[in-house]
Specification:
about 80 residues; mainly alpha; about 70% helix; elongated
Length: about 80
């Protein structure tokens, strides 16, 4: 994996909290930033899927098709 150096601006009090966590965990600021960004991106991806599921469940055409493709137990047939 290649890495790139970036610059971010954060409030001073947030940086102080990060410095304290860095010391507690005996890790690098880069590792903390990387973990935080990965968690943020995962959260946003999950939010997109949840929004899609909500929209699909409210769509009458989708509900009809789901019933048509489902079996008696309400599960999807496997082909």
């Amino acid at each position: 994996m290649t890495a790139e150096k970036i610059t971010v601006t954060i409030p001073h009090d947030l940086k102080e909290k990060l410095v304290n966590i860095k010391a507690e965990l005996k890790t690098s600021m880069s590792a903390i930033y990387k973990e935080a960004l990965e968690a943020y991106l995962e959260k946003k991806e999950l939010e997109k899927w949840e929004k899609g599921a909500l929209l699909a469940s409210a769509d009458k055409k989708y509900q009809s098709l789901s019933k048509e493709l489902g079996n008696a137990e309400g599960k999807i047939f496997e082909y």
